[in-house]
Design brief:
331 residues; alpha/beta; D-Maltodextrin-Binding Protein, domain 2; eleven-stranded mixed sheet; 11 strands; 18% strand
Length: 331
């Protein structure tokens, strides 16, 4: 290489490093989530952040703050809407702002996790993301898994829907989930996830709804006796950004974040599948009594429930859902 070419190459490299150095102070974003520091969510998002930092030469620093370090989900949700928090890993909490975000979790619709993600990575997910965008939230395409929910109880196993009659069940705050339990005769009580272990230990409620990984990670086997396999609804997580903060990033940095966010989602899905595969063995070893619930009676009580929620979610969204799972409302 000639002296002139070496000089120009050195100048170019210096300019690139200077540009990246100049950008380093500009882009320090925080990512909040409520899941524990040993959860697949936190571990994969931390890995994502490290890779983004490396691939942008230090220009994009994402500080991942787990275990509710920034407050409750309701607080973080409000913060990301206001732009006080740039990035937020959300569970099923967007319903009051965008009702159709709850649709993937409608009870007894999807049967398998691949079915859910086929819809969410595709047309139903596109519709939901469009609705979120209209509210000032950029939602990343590939979602994270939480899993199908089961019922755990302290007082008796749930063998059929009749066993839920009058039972107090901790449920998330969503109106749809409360309506579901009321529709099948239970008495839902709403508490945040960080209150769950406490209210179970203090016997404020008899049972609760969560997927295997949460039952294992939060050690609910210490405060619940029975695990009844119902697969009654699916839940997941989405990575979200305040739209103005997202648009403030250069296109090349957006591309790097998106690439690693997608990789993190796929890796987390595999993590959850692995936890689920070994969960029953772990929970039985911890003393939980496991039974398979006959869920045929649940669906028979949900006709009016589906009618109500189809009107809330709207005909377009409902058509996209039924195209995936079949007719839910029969005339």
């Amino acid at each position: 290489m000639s002296s002139r070419r070496r000089f120009l190459a050195a100048v170019g490299a210096s300019a690139l490093l200077s540009a990246r150095g100049a950008r380093a102070a500009q882009f320090h974003y925080r990512l909040g989530l409520s899941q524990p520091l040993d959860s697949p969510n936190y571990l994969r998002l931390k890995e994502m952040a490290d890779r983004v930092l490396a691939d942008t030469g230090g220009a994009m620093h994402i500080e991942v703050l787990g275990a509710g370090a920034l407050g409750s989900d309701n607080q973080m949700l409000a913060m990301v809407q206001k732009g006080e928090l740039e990035l937020y890993m959300a569970g099923n909490v967007w319903g009051p702002l965008v009702p159709v975000t709850e649709m993937p979790g409608l009870p007894f619709t999807f049967k398998t996790t691949p079915e859910v993600f086929a819809a969410l990575d595709g047309d139903l997910g596109d519709y939901i993301r469009g609705e979120m965008l209209a509210k000032g939230i950029h939602q990343f395409r590939l979602g994270f898994d939480n899993g199908f929910h089961q019922l755990t109880t302290r007082t008796r196993p749930i063998r059929t829907v009749d066993d839920l009659a009058g039972m107090t069940i901790r449920t998330p705050f969503q109106k749809m989930t409360v309506d579901f339990f009321e529709s099948i005769g239970a008495k839902p009580m709403t508490f945040t996830l960080n209150q769950l272990y406490k209210v179970l230990k203090e016997q404020v409620v008899d049972g609760q709804t969560d997927p295997y990984q949460i039952i294992v990670l939060l050690k609910l086997y210490e405060v619940q006796t029975y695990l009844s396999i119902t697969n009654h609804w699916w839940s997941g997580f989405t990575l979200n950004a305040n739209l103005e903060k997202w648009k403030a990033l250069p296109a090349d940095i957006q591309a790097v974040i998106t690439r690693h966010a997608d990789a993190a989602a796929l890796a987390q899905r595999a993590d959850v599948a692995k936890i689920d595969a070994g969960a029953l063995e772990v929970l039985r070893a911890k003393g939980m009594i496991v039974n398979q619930t006959d869920t045929s009676g649940f669906r028979r009580q949900l006709g009016a429930f589906y009618e109500r929620w189809s009107k809330i979610y709207g005909p377009r969204a409902w058509a996209l859902l039924e195209a995936r799972v079949g007719k839910l409302i029969h005339s």
